[in-house]
Write a structure and sequence with these properties.
The protein is mainly α and 365 residues long. Helices cover 61% and strands 0% of the residues. Helix 7 packs parallel to helix 9 and helix 13 runs antiparallel to helix 14. The chain is globular, with a radius of gyration of 19 Å.
C-alpha cells in the first residue's frame, strides 16, 4: 500500500462516517436474520431505500440518504473549525441549531438533552416568572451511542495536531475532558462518554502511529488501549473525579473490550456472528463501540468488507457502520474507499470540505 497522507486519512474518516451511516440507514433496528431474509440470503451489498418500517423518521428515506450520525458529526466538526478548539458553549449552540432544523433519528437522550440546553441558553423569563437555569438543565441518563457516533471530528482534531507535531497523541486527559464535556450535553450516564473516549483514542492512534500493519501491532494497540483506560480510571479516582463506568456491572465496558482479544473475535476467517454475539450490536454504547472496534480490527484495510459486515450484523446498523467506516477510512485513506460509494451522492463532497477545513484548523493550533 502506498503512503497515505494525513489529510487523505482525515477525508477518509469523515467520508467513512457518511457512507457507513447511509449504508446502515435502511436496516436500522433489524436483526441479522431479518436482513438475511429481506436480501434473499445475499446480505447487504449496496445502498438501498429504507427497508425497516419501525422508525418513522427514516422509513421514507432513499438510497444514499444519511441520518443523525452524519448530521451530528458535522455539528462537532463545524464548531471545531469555527473556534479552533473545543468550546462547549459554541458546540452546544450548534446542536441547538440542528434541534430546530431536524431531529430525525435522534435518540431520546440526545433530543431531551439538547432541548434542555436550548432552555438553559435561550430561555427568557416572562414578567413575574421565577426561573432557575439550573432546574432546566438536567442531562438525561441515557447510555446510547449519541456521543460515540459524533466523536470522530474531535478525535481527528487531536490526532491531526499531534501528528503534525510528530507526537503520538499523549494529551490523553485533555481529550478525555473534552469528550466528557461533549457527552454531558446529552448523556448523563458517563459510561457512554467513556466508550466514546475509547473509540476516539483508537482513531487518534491511527493518525499518529499507523498501527494496523500486522497482527502484532493490532494486539499491541488493543492491550495499550485497555491499559491506558484502566490507568485513566485509577488516576481520575485519585483526583476525586466521577467514575467512568460502574465497576460492579456484571459485564462492564472494560470487560467487553477484553473479549476482543480472543482469536475468534479478531480472525476475519471466523463467522462475523461470533463478534456480534460476544459484544452486542444494539444502540447501547457498551455494545456498539466494542463491536465497531472489533469489526475494524478484523478488516483494518478493507473498507467495503468491514462496513458491510457491520451493516449485516443488524442492530444499530447506521451508527455501527459509520463508526467502522470512520476507523477504516482513517486507516486506508479516501482513495481506498470504493468510487461507486464515494461518488454515490454529490452531498458526500461535504466530507472533503470539512476534512480540509478541520485539517488546516488543527495544524494552526
Amino acid at each position: 500500500m502506498s503512503p497515505i497522507s494525513l489529510i487523505e486519512r482525515v477525508h477518509g474518516c469523515l467520508l467513512g462516517v457518511a457512507i457507513g451511516d447511509a449504508l446502515g440507514m435502511p436496516w436500522e433496528t433489524m436483526t441479522r436474520e431479518e436482513i438475511n431474509e429481506a436480501t434473499e440470503r445475499k446480505g447487504v451489498l449496496r445502498f438501498h431505500d429504507a427497508v425497516q418500517q419501525r422508525l418513522r423518521d427514516t422509513k421514507d428515506f432513499r438510497a444514499g440518504d444519511t441520518t443523525d450520525d452524519w448530521q451530528l458529526t458535522k455539528v462537532v466538526a463545524r464548531s471545531l473549525i469555527r473556534q479552533g478548539h473545543y468550546d462547549v458553549i459554541d458546540c452546544a449552540q450548534e446542536h441547538v441549531k440542528e434541534l430546530h432544523h431536524s431531529t430525525f433519528g435522534w435518540g431520546k437522550s440526545t433530543t431531551k438533552g439538547i432541548q434542555n440546553v436550548s432552555n438553559f441558553l435561550y430561555h427568557i423569563p416572562k414578567p413575574g416568572e421565577r426561573y432557575f437555569a439550573s432546574q432546566s438543565f438536567a442531562t438525561p441518563k441515557g447510555c446510547g451511542n449519541g456521543v460515540a457516533m459524533k466523536i470522530s471530528p474531535l478525535a481527528l482534531f487531536y490526532g491531526i495536531r499531534a501528528a503534525s507535531r510528530g507526537e503520538q497523541g499523549n494529551d490523553v486527559f485533555s481529550f478525555y475532558s473534552d469528550v466528557m464535556s461533549l457527552g454531558s450535553l446529552t448523556h448523563g450516564d458517563r459510561r457512554t462518554s467513556f466508550a466514546a473516549f475509547a473509540f476516539g483514542r483508537t482513531l487518534i492512534a491511527l493518525l499518529t502511529r499507523n498501527l494496523p500493519l500486522c497482527d502484532v501491532a493490532l494486539e499491541s494497540h488493543l492491550n495499550e488501549l485497555l491499559s491506558g483506560m484502566l490507568l485513566c480510571e485509577i488516576i481520575l479516582q485519585t483526583r476525586g473525579w466521577e467514575h467512568c463506568y460502574d465497576a460492579h456491572e456484571p459485564d462492564p465496558f472494560y470487560a467487553r473490550l477484553h473479549k476482543l482479544c480472543s482469536e475468534e473475535c479478531l480472525n476475519p476467517a471466523r463467522a462475523a456472528s461470533i463478534l456480534s454475539t460476544a459484544t452486542g450490536t444494539g444502540c447501547f454504547a457498551l455494545e456498539s463501540v466494542p463491536f465497531a472496534l472489533g469489526t475494524f480490527l478484523r478488516h483494518p484495510h478493507d473498507f467495503e468488507a468491514g462496513v458491510l459486515e457491520a451493516v449485516n450484523a443488524g442492530g444499530d446498523t447506521d451508527t455501527n457502520a459509520s463508526m467502522v467506516g470512520a476507523l477504516i477510512g482513517a486507516n486506508v485513506g479516501v482513495h481506498n474507499i470504493p468510487d461507486s460509494w464515494h461518488y454515490f451522492r454529490k452531498a458526500y463532497e461535504e466530507a472533503e470540505t470539512l476534512a480540509v477545513q478541520l485539517f488546516h484548523t488543527a495544524t494552526k493550533t
